[in-house]
Each structure stands twice: as C-alpha cells, then as structure tokens.
Design a protein that fits this description.
- The complex is a heterodimer of chains A (478) and B (422).
- Chain A has 478 residues and is an alpha/beta fold.
- Chain A has one domain (1-17, 98-421): Metal-dependent hydrolases (TIM Barrel, Alpha-Beta Barrel).
- Chain A has helices at residues 2-21, 142-148, 197-204, 213-249, 255-262, 271-281, 293-306, 323-328, 353-359, 378-391, 398-401, 407-413; strands spanning 45-53, 59-68, 71-75, 85-88, 93-96, 98-103, 151-156, 164-172, 190-194, 285-290, 310-315, 332-335, 364-367, 430-433, 444-449, 452-456.
- In chain A, strands 1, 2, 3, 4, 5, 14, 15 and 16 form an eight-stranded mixed beta sheet that branches.
- In chain A, a hairpin with a 7-residue loop joins strand 7 and strand 8.
- With 422 residues, chain B is an alpha/beta fold.
- Chain B has a domain at 79-325: TIM Barrel (Alpha-Beta Barrel), CATH 3.20.20.
- Chain B contains twelve helices and 18 strands.
- Chain B is globular, with a radius of gyration of 23 Å.
- Classes of the chains: A alpha/beta (478), B alpha/beta (422).
Chain lengths: 478, 422
C-alpha cells in the first residue's frame, strides 16, 4: 500500500518536474543559436574530362564528375539527369572546396576599425563562455574574397589573448545576413586555447595571472578541475533523474526517493564550464594555439591527465621537431608555410614544417591562414610547403598536398564525413580551377557549395558583394 | 680578451663565414632575364672579379675557373626584397632587438635625422634567410608609424657588409589616416606640420629650434639640415593609400620640389594619370584587395596592371621583414592579375635600384655580378633559388633555417638532435 502510494507520489513528482528537467540535462541541450543554412537547389552539373584531386590522396586524370541535389553523385561514370549542365573541364583541375581551420573573418573584419575588433575577450584569461559566432559580422568583405579563392568552409576562432579564448564556429562560406545562415549544419564547436607568449604577456602586463608559462599551465589545470567537478555534478544529477524515472517505471521505491529529491536541485548551469566540460567529453574539439615543441608536449601530458583530446595544434612553428609525437597522439598540426620570427616563440620556423609533419606515419598536416590575405590563397600556401618538402627530398605529389587544405582540415573540424573530399554522397563542395592549383597563376573558375554555384570568375551575378561595399567610391572612373 | 686576440678571432670568423670565392665563373645555358622589361633569352654569363665580364651565346669555358650549367633554368639579377627592416628587426616582438622605429622621445615632433642605418646589423639571421631565397638588396626603412616623419634609410645590399648602403638618403613620411589620427587627430595635421617644417628651411633660425610650441619643438637643426639636403639629393617616400592623399602628396612635392614616391598606393589606380604625368613611382603590395581601412576602400588586385598600363613606375613591397622572401609571390600574383611578366621582373630587379639611386642591377658587362639561378619561373611559388651569387661569389645557401632543417630532417635522432650539428 505504502509502496503503491510512494510510487504514485514519485510518478507525479517526476512528471511534474519533467518539462523543467529536459532543457536542464547537460548532454541533451537543444542547440543554441542553431544553423538556419539551407542550400537552395542548384541544377545538376556534369564536369567532363577533368583532372581531379580527390582530397583524400587520389589523383584522377581525364575523369568526369557529376553533382546533383547538393551532393556528389558519382566520380568516373554513372547516370545523369536530363536537366544536367555540362562543363568542359579538359585542361581544368577540380578539387574539393578548400577549408581554413583558422580564420578571424567576421570577428576581425575589414575595415579593421577599433569598433570591429571583436576577436579577443581579453578581460580575463579564462573566457571559455564566449562564442566567436556572437562576434561574427557577416558583412565582412573578406568572406567573398576567400570564396573567390576557393574556400567553401572555415572555422572562425576567437583570438589567442586568453588561455581559453572561447568557442569557435564552423561556417559555410555563403553570403548571409546572419552567422546562423552560414553555420555549417551539425558541425561541432571548437574550443580555442592558447599557449605561450600571448596570454602571459596580456595578463602579466597587468600584473595579473598568468605572467609565466608555468602560470599558464596552472590556470589551465585549475579550469579543467572545475570542469571535471561540474561534469560530475551533472552526471550525478542525470543519473538521479534516470534512476527516478526507472523507479517510477518499475513501481519501486526506497533509494529512488533520494534520487527523486536530487532531481529537485539540478546543478546551476555555467556557460564557461559548459564549454570546458564539452571539451572533456569530446563534443567540442580542442584547437590549441601553440608554437614551441616543448609546450605542445606539456599540453599533450595535460590532456592525458584530464582525459581529453587535443584535436589540432595551431601555428606550431616547431611542430616539425615533434612530428612523430603528434602523429602518435593523432593530433593535427595547422601550420603556416613560411611565417617566422615575428616573436621569439616563432624564431625556429622553417619552410619544411608542414612537409615534415606530413611525413610522419599518420601525420595530419594542415595549411591554415590566420589571415584575411592567406585565406584567399590557401592553394599557394600549400604549394610553397609542397615545394619545400620536395626540395628536402620528401616526394610530395599534388594529390597528397591537397589534403592539407581539404580532407585534413575537414577532419580537424569534425566535418570530414560530410565534406573535404570528392566521394559519392558527400556535400558537393567543389572548386573548378583554370589549371593545376599549385601555382601562383591558378585561379578558381567556379566554386560550388552544396552543389550551388556560389562564385564564378568574371560573372557579376556569381560574385557576391557585402552590404559594406555597395555605393563606395562613387564618382570614380573605372 | 686582448685586442690582438680579438682581431684574430674576428678575422677567423669572417674567413669562415665568407662565401666560397671563385675568381671567374661561367654560367652557361641560362634563360636570362637581364633585368629590364625585355623577354628572356638563352645566354651565357661570364663573371670575373665580382663583375659581369660578358653576356652572350657560346662563351668559352676555357676562360672560367668554374662553370655552372644552368641547363635552361631562369637566371635573373638578385631581387629587391621590398621596404623592410631586415637587419633592424631580429625578432618582431623582442623590442630590444628591433631598431626600425623611433618611439617616444620628447625632443621634437619630427626627426628626419633619425637614421636607421646606424642600427643595421648584417649578421642578423634575417639577412641570410632572405638572401638564399634570391634577394640581393632591400630598402631599409624607418618604420612607418605615428609620426609625420619616421626617419631616414636607404638601400642596403645583402652582402654581409657592415656598411653596404647604397643610393640616396630616403626620408619616410606618413600622411595616411591612421597616423593622422595619432598626430593631432587629422591627416590634415601632417600637411600643417610639413608645410611649417619645409617653409622653415628657407627662414634663418637663430636658436637651433623651430618652435611651434614652447615645450615641443617641431624640428631641430639637424632635422632641418636633413630635410634641406634630402630636398636636393634625397627621396621622400610618402605612406599614402587614399586617392585624395596621393594627390596631396603630388601637390606638396611639386610645391617643394621633392623627389617623391608613394608607398601603399591601394587607391593609386584611381589617380594613375596624375601619377604617370608627374613621374611619381608607386610601391604597392599587389595582394592588397580588401578595404582594410577607410583609406583603402578601392584596393583591388589589378592595381598593378592598371598602374603599369597608365605608365606609372611600379615597385613591390610585402610589408614583411622576416618573410620578405614572399615578395616573389606578390609579384607573381600581380602577373596573374594582368601585369605583363617582364614588367614584374623589372620591378623586382633593376627598377628599385634606379628609383632609389642604387648601383645598376642588370646582368650586363661591367656591372656587379649579383645573380640568381632559379629552379623554375622566378615569379612562381613552384620555384626556389638554386644558387645565389653575390659579387660573383657563390653563396653557401645556408641560413639558421637550413641548419634547423638539417638537424630535424634525419629520422633517427641518435644521441639527440643537439648532437646533429651540420
């Protein structure tokens, strides 16, 4: 009798709480600021007789490619729809859409006026709670320039002033009034972290922690400890909710009463720790700005200590010194082809860095830009790195180097199942080049995103302009 | 260490560091760009005692101590690296190792007498890093910044010499919106100060200072002497991107009889006719195509092509010091956007020397042999310098970066990388 009453009580308590509980469960929050991007339908396109670099290491000469319904339908031979447009791609090259894992377009837009400087919340060393997307100005003219360079997706990151800079967002490079209209559907968030000089300079300069590299590490670890505790609180709470529900289902009582009471007091949600706990769980991918080899190894030990994965080291001008360790830990290196010397942690930069990271078995080398100029010429940056690798005797053909700006980048962002290579069923993110893309004279003729022609050379109706650019310099004789 | 031992040690060091010397060198079968805007031709180049002795077909190898078969590879004069702080800035953010900028000094608003050549260090790691990529000289600049006049510099040659300066004294002047905002809150403040300073050159000064304000003299006697001399014999490089600012430079330079050059020039294409008419050269970064500021709303990739077509003398700079080697890529992109190839070659080789008053940089008899043999098209990113030759000597083609590569290229570290000393 008592049991039955208890069960009824439990059941009513549980169901009374249920509507409140659902949005509180940490692992099942509805997506905030969700993507509203939907590709319009584009006509099917048949590219004939192209040289195709697939992005996953293959080169296909004199090959046809068919895209329809936003997807790659087939490579080689297959059926085509009656309404397909044929593009003669003889002497042309096709690659997957290029992907930049490190951009500040929108958060440090053009024009670079102070009021547009939205990339670094440099007011505290740990700002995991901020999201780069909330700073993105979709009217940055840099997006359309990058599109003309063949970039179809990119990660917009917060800057590196902070140890934990906040969340990065992966965008499709499509013009939109809002960043939601650009958000890559279902792409995981990134977490931007930073090693070395920048955080200690910014905060040490204010006689505030951290002012040293050891201060950096202590502060990361303290934050991870808080995140672990936060995760444990939510795990306990979620378990209680589950136990209470089961108890209600099974008409049992006893310990479940305690569980039911626990469901009354969910842990208080914390935006900073939401992000950090998401990184610990692996739902949010860790992107870490780190130059020096020794610091990267420290970070890998820290990741071991707290049981998370470092997805990608960014900048890593000394990555070549630990290429094997990076490969063993399945960590990508997102690197420049030739930047060096602008600060002492960049003093040992060499032009073979990317090729040496690529050489290691299982190595994941990526060419990133961190620049509104570089993002327009990722193919050129990759070409320089390829050349230096080849001159060092590493034998890197174009079909291998293209991975650095396509598939490997997609993997770093967690979108490699959807894009980053030319394979049946993947998003039709495709660039048609006038020639071998690894040349200073190479230019995209057409850029498709989800099968939609978003850019075409010398075609004003396929050359997007931002609102900012309209009506400027009136009276100028062209 | 006593003086004698020091000198001996120093000499030893210099001997070790000096490039391999060849009395005479023959480069055969080059695809030679002599450095003007003529197309390439298949030529041999004979070099003796640091000078080009002969350029022609089928030169005799019998006259040469050493022969390099270029096997059809391109050969150019050693390139211009742009406007840089090479040898002035070892590491960008290590400020005690950066000497390209005059920071806060209370003694005056303008210091044209600030001469960065006094701080030049040819042993900087930046110099060989740049040289082995095919670059033979640069314009050493007092960094563009907040002041109306940043200071002075000149061409310098990457031959490891401590005083390898060349050409005319070059004064760096800022008249753009960014610096205008820092000085008086308006770019018009630059013109106000410049007018005052240049007008003062005509007036007699008793006390050595030309005072605009009790506490802040505008310019001291040395500064005035510098401006006076530069007006006669020097060059004024104006940092300006906006079309209206460029026209102000032309008007001011006409009025004060200055030999002016525009640096930046993002909107130069808008006023290209006026630039051509006045014969004012423009130094651009041909990659500038974003409205990075309100001074550059008109930035576009075919700026170089438009300027060239209008007859404007064109040079390139990348805005980089450590990565000045990127300038070939800048020029290549200008070609990809409509600039004739040979015009880009001239802009990268002989034209900067002409504009800044340096020694001629062509491959021609009697001229200094600063020459590069390239693996392929020198304006493409698919090529690299195979051999740099400065003063007729083969560069060892090593830098701090090639040493790091040699240390980390082997897959077996042995006892440790620290023991791999190339």
């Amino acid at each position: 009798m008592l049991g039955l009453l208890g069960t009824l009580f439990m059941r009513s308590l549980f169901f009374a709480l249920t509507p409140l509980l659902i949005p509180m469960v940490l692992q099942a929050q509805p997506e905030a600021f969700p993507s509203t991007y939907e590709a319009p339908s584009g006509p099917p396109v048949l590219f004939k007789n192209a040289t195709i670099l697939t992005g996953d290491g293959r080169r296909l000469d004199d090959t046809d490619l068919y895209i329809a319904n936003g997807q790659i339908q087939w490579v080689g031979a297959g059926e085509i729809g009656p309404d397909a447009t044929a593009v003669d791609a003889s002497d042309r090259w096709i690659t997957p859409g290029l992907i930049d894992v490190h951009s500040h377009l929108g958060v440090y837009p053009s024009p670079g006026v102070a009021a547009h400087s939205d990339g670094n919340e440099a007011t505290a060393p740990v700002t995991a709670e901020v999201w780069a997307e909330h700073s993105v100005w979709p009217q940055d003219p840099g997006f359309s320039r990058a599109l003309a360079g063949g970039v179809t997706a990119m990660q917009i990151l917060p800057g590196s002033a902070n140890l934990f800079g906040g969340r990065g967002v992966t965008l499709k490079n499509v013009p939109s009034i809002s960043y939601q209209g650009m958000k890559f559907p279902d792409a995981p968030h990134g977490l931007k972290m930073a090693c070395g000089e920048n955080p200690k300079r910014v905060y040490g300069g204010r006689t505030q922690a951290p002012s040293t590299r050891m201060g950096n590490v202590a502060a990361y670890r303290s934050a991870w400890i808080r995140a672990q505790r936060y995760q444990a609180d939510w795990d306990r709470y979620n378990q209680a909710v589950k136990d209470a529900a089961e108890a209600a289902e099974n008409d049992s009582s006893g310990a479940s009463v305690a569980s039911a009471l626990l469901t009354n007091t969910p842990p208080r949600r914390n935006l900073e720790l939401d992000t950090l706990a998401g990184a610990l769980r692996g739902d949010i991918l860790v992107h870490m700005h780190c130059y020096r080899a020794d610091e990267m190894l420290t970070i890998l030990d820290m990741a071991e200590e707290f049981g998370y994965r470092v997805g990608t080291f960014h900048h890593g001008v000394e990555a070549y010194k630990i290429a094997d360790e990076l490969a063993e830990n399945d960590v990508c290196g997102a690197l420049w082809s030739d930047w060096w010397g602008f600060k002492i942690e960049a003093y040992d930069g060499i032009q073979e860095n990317i090729a040496l990271v690529d050489r290691a078995t299982g190595g994941c080398a990526i060419v990133h830009s961190d620049s509104d100029e570089g993002i327009q010429r990722l193919n050129q940056e990759a070409a320089k790195a390829m050349l230096r690798g080849n001159r060092a005797g590493l034998d890197i053909p174009p079909e291998r180097a293209i991975r650095w700006i396509t598939y490997n980048a997609a993997k770093s962002l967690g979108v490699h199942e959807q894009t980053g290579s030319i394979e049946d069923g993947k998003m039709a993110d495709v660039v048609l080049w006038n020639q071998d893309p690894f040349s200073v004279y190479a230019k995209p003729l057409q850029v498709y995103i989800d099968g939609v022609l978003r850019y075409e050379q010398d075609n004003p109706s396929r050359s997007p302009k931002s609102d900012f650019e309209l009506g400027q310099l009136m009276g100028t004789a062209q | 260490m006593n003086t004698t031992r020091f000198v001996i040690a120093l000499l030893g060091h210099l001997l070790l560091a000096s490039p391999s010397y060849t009395a005479s060198l023959l480069i055969t079968n080059g695809t030679v760009f002599i450095g003007d805007d003529a197309p390439s031709s298949q030529l041999d180049i004979l070099i003796e005692d640091g000078l080009v002795e002969a350029v022609g077909s089928d030169l005799s190898a019998a006259d040469a101590d050493q022969v390099i078969d270029a096997a059809g590879r391109p050969v150019t004069p050693a390139l211009f690296a742009g406007i840089t702080a090479a040898g002035l800035s070892e590491i960008g953010m290590v400020y005690e190792a950066v000497d390209s900028r005059l920071n806060e000094l209370y003694t005056g608003l303008m210091h044209p007498e600030f001469d960065v050549r006094k701080a030049y260090n040819p042993l900087s790691s930046v110099v060989p890093v740049t040289r082995i990529e095919g670059y033979g000289y640069t314009l050493l600049a007092a960094a563009f910044g907040d002041r109306t006049i940043s200071g002075q510099g000149s061409l310098v040659r990457f031959d490891s010499g401590f005083d390898s300066f060349e050409g005319k004294t070059t004064i760096f002047v800022n008249v753009d919106g960014y610096s205008g905002n820092k000085i008086g809150g308006s770019r018009a403040a630059h013109w106000m100060l410049l007018e005052t300073a240049f007008s003062s050159l005509a007036a007699k000064q008793g006390n050595g200072f030309w005072l605009t304000h009790n506490e802040h003299p505008l310019i001291n006697q040395d500064g005035r002497a510098t401006l006076k001399d530069a007006r006669e014999n020097g060059i004024f490089v104006f940092r300006a991107n906006r079309a209206s600012d460029i026209l102000q430079v032309l008007a001011f330079s006409r009025k004060h009889q200055l030999n002016a050059i525009i640096s930046g020039g993002q909107e130069a294409w808008i006023v290209r006719e006026a630039l051509a008419e006045s014969g004012t050269p423009v130094v651009i970064n041909a990659l500038d195509n974003l409205p990075g500021s309100f001074d550059g709303l008109g930035a576009r990739l075919d700026n170089a092509a438009l300027l060239h077509r209008a007859g404007v003398s064109l040079l390139f700079t990348s805005g980089e010091t450590h990565n000045a080697r990127k300038l070939r890529q800048v020029a290549g992109n200008a070609v990809a956007n409509g600039l004739p190839y040979e015009a880009a070659i001239a802009a990268m080789t002989s034209r900067p020397a002409e504009v800044f008053g340096g020694k001629p940089r062509m491959i021609a008899p009697g001229l200094r042999a600063d020459v590069v043999i390239w693996s392929d098209d020198p304006l493409n990113i698919t090529s690299a310098a195979d051999q740099v030759i400065i003063d007729g000597k083969l560069d060892p083609m090593t830098s701090r970066q090639t040493e790091l590569l040699k240390r980390y290229l082997p897959t077996e570290p042995g006892l440790g990388r620290a023991y791999i000393n190339p």
